[in-house]
Design brief:
There is one protein chain. By secondary structure, the chain is an alpha+beta fold. Among the domains are: 202-287, Helix Hairpins (Orthogonal Bundle), CATH 1.10.287.130; 299-446, Histidine kinase-like ATPase, C-terminal domain (Heat Shock Protein 90), CATH 3.30.565.10. The protein contains 10 helices and 13 strands. The chain has helices spanning 2-9, 13-62, 89-95, 137-188, 202-250, 259-287, 301-312, 335-352, 377-380, 398-408, and strands at residues 71-77, 82-83, 107-113, 116-125, 129-135, 299-300, 320-326, 330-331, 356-362, 365-370, 412-418, 421-427, 440-446. The strands form 3 sheets. It has a 6-stranded mixed sheet. Strands 2-1-5-4-3 form a 5-stranded antiparallel sheet. Strand 4 and strand 5 form a beta hairpin. Helix 7 crosses helix 8 and helix 8 runs antiparallel to helix 10 (398-408). The two termini are 75 Å apart.
């Protein structure tokens, strides 16, 4: 069976169709000459008995014999032991094979006479008489041939109809498949392509999936192109500054008043360049982040948040960071990626906050709020896209890294405007195994 499937898989749909038609015709012929032939013979015999019984009833009603019909009738007298009507010469040998007085006086039976199967019927009437009915040989053969031809004709027309329907069905498959192949080839060639199948079956769904995939790939390519442009622009400025200042110093010229100040400019731009490269490396690394898949809450989040707060406390001393942390809340994942997430969200909050940041940690929920200005409506849907920078943004990769990590570990991150600020939430609805009970702790850290 496996070899047949492999063999058929190398054929086109038309070739597969023709192969199926050939096998179907062969099967029908085999079916016709084996099973159907036997059943036709059985049906013909049963119909012959119907004809003979009808002729016998007509005789009993009229007491007349019409041997010009297709059924021959012979009256036998048990008392005299002979037939009362004339037997044609061609039927005398046939009649001699029949017992005219069977047990019980009536019988439907058959026997082989020469090359033919002969069916006959005997009924008893008026106590002493038997009425024997025989179908003429030529009538039985004609009836059988007519029935066989009718069955063959019906099967032939049904087969032709099925072949035509299957051919139309295959053509209805080939056209959209050809359109899909043409669509894919045009996309591969970098040409603009459209695909309109107007189908709602599986082929239509495949077409919709291909169009959706092409649209998504185009958007990703657009984002990738924008990223390359942005990266080139972001790296070009500090590199150009470092190069020009270095060449000037080499020539004994101090572009920024003194040697120390000029070197400070070089160091500052080198730091900017280092941070941008670090962000790109982190973003790329998070793209290859893989979840272990065990769905176990194995990482205590409160200490990670505290470390991130301590590291960020020197950025702005005019902002108060309030925390409401359940100490024994566990998240799923690894420490380093989650620490990057917290640091990026906290860095973003410190950049926009006026005077207050609030961090809440509960079971399967982390919220970071800042009382800064609301996010523009046109940016809310683009917050987590690479290189989407706000008015105070730096590189546009921080929130996209947050999204990559949270999605990898089965969490959802959202940004939302509140009445008095902006809040970012990280949560999950997935059921995960807990490893510890939680204990509440509130604190306020001022920076």
């Amino acid at each position: 069976m496996k070899r047949i499937k492999i063999w058929l898989s190398n054929f086109t749909l038309i070739q597969q169709f023709l192969t199926i038609v050939i096998f179907t015709v062969a099967f029908l012929l085999f079916f016709m000459f084996s099973y159907l032939n036997r059943n036709i013979d059985s049906f013909v015999n049963s119909q012959m008995y119907v004809f003979m019984h009808r002729a016998q009833r007509e005789y009993l009603e009229t007491r007349t014999i019409d041997n010009e019909s297709n059924v021959l009738l012979f009256v036998y007298s048990v008392e005299s032991g002979r037939y009362l009507n004339t037997i044609p010469n061609e039927y005398k040998g046939l009649i001699s094979n029949i017992d005219p007085d069977p047990e019980g006086g009536s019988i439907d039976s058959s026997f082989v006479y020469g090359n033919n199967s002969i069916v006959y019927s005997i009924i008893s009437f008026d106590n002493d008489y038997r009425l024997i009915a025989i179908v003429k040989n030529n009538f039985r053969e004609e009836f059988r041939d007519a029935l066989s031809n009718s069955v063959i004709n019906v099967m032939f027309y049904v087969l032709i109809g099925m072949i035509a329907l299957i051919m139309l069905w295959i053509m209805s498959l080939i056209r959209p498949l050809d359109a899909i192949i043409s669509y894919i080839n045009r996309i591969k060639a970098g040409e603009k392509a459209t695909l309109n199948l107007n189908r709602y079956d599986e082929i239509g769904k495949v077409g919709e999936a291909l169009v959706s995939m092409n649209r998504e790939l185009s958007e990703q390519q657009h984002i990738r192109d924008e990223m390359i442009q942005n990266i080139s622009h972001d790296l070009k400025t500090p590199i150009a500054t470092i190069k020009s200042y270095s060449e000037s110093i080499k020539d004994g010229i101090y572009p920024y008043d003194t040697l120390e100040k000029s070197v400070d400019v070089i160091i500052e731009n080198a730091d900017r360049l280092e941070k941008k490269v670090y962000s790109l490396i982190t973003y790329n690394k998070m793209g290859y982040l893989v979840d272990s898949g065990d769905n176990i809450l194995n990482l205590e989040m409160a200490p990670i948040i505290q470390k991130a707060i301590l590291a960020a406390s020197v950025i702005r001393n005019d902002v108060k960071i309030e925390t409401d942390l359940d100490e024994k809340v566990y998240f799923h994942g690894d420490e380093e990626p989650w620490r990057v997430v917290i640091e990026n969200l906290l860095d973003n909050a410190l950049r926009y906050a006026h005077s207050r940041i609030s961090i809440n940690l509960k079971d399967n929920l982390l919220e970071i709020f800042n009382d800064g200005e609301a996010i523009e409506k046109d940016r809310l849907d683009k917050l987590f896209k690479p290189y989407e920078k706000g008015n105070k943004g730096k590189f546009g990769l921080g929130l996209s890294i947050v999204k990559k990590v949270t999605e990898t570990y089965g969490y959802t991150v959202t940004g939302e405007n509140m009445n008095d600020g902006v809040i970012f939430r990280i949560y999950t609805s997935k059921k995960m195994k807990k490893v510890s009970k939680k204990k509440n702790k509130k604190s306020i850290i001022e920076t």
